[in-house]
Amino acid sequence: MAHAAQVGLQDATSPIMEELITFHDHALMIIFLISFLVLYALFLTLTTKLTNTNISDAQEMETVWTILPAIILVLIALPSLRILYMTDEVNDPSLTIKSIGHQWYWTYEYTDYGGLIFNSYMLPPLFLEPGDLRLLDVDNRVVLPIEAPIRMMITSQDVLHSWAVPTLGLKTDAIPGRLNQTTFTATRPGVYYGQCSEICGANHSFMPIVLELIPLKIFEMGPVFTL
Fold first, then answer.
1. Distance CA 52, CA 158 (A)
2. Which residue ranges does the chain devote to CATH 1.10.287.90?
3. Cytochrome oxidase subunit II copper A binding domain spans which residues (predicted)?
């Protein structure tokens, strides 16, 4: 999860998030190079004494500053489109979870376990135990296995919500009357936090998401739910 004064992205827990971090660094380096080039050109313009103010023909330079931005856009667009298509792939998921957004809590349904359904509310400050995180911990966590493709079916019962877990690279809108889906494969165990990322009313800030990821062997021994 994020920590105080953090500048970069959270550590990746899924292959998609690793790709997103790589693309972020790739695009950031291009931005740095463009910014340095522009600032250098401005510096030369302000400090160099112009000895010839006549308009000169510079077709070669015009060709370069027309083609170069196009090449830069291609270098940014190709990896971006690759990741975009990767996020839409659904490859034979091992487990399907349905998440329903409400004002202001989440309902989860394990469709592969006889329709097990439970609600997940934020823990009030009076019920927090030592080590719990204020405004982030919930009464019922979503327990999922690692190293297995998981499909999330996301919808809403009232207004727009957004199911987001940054460390997994997930952010999918929950829309009333529409069922959106996303997939992920977690690579390491742990407890990971997210929040609703769509302004959905007065208590929008109090819709945390908590995923407890455990090894696949332990999960196969039987569903472990913190109910």
1. 69
2. 15-88
3. 92-225
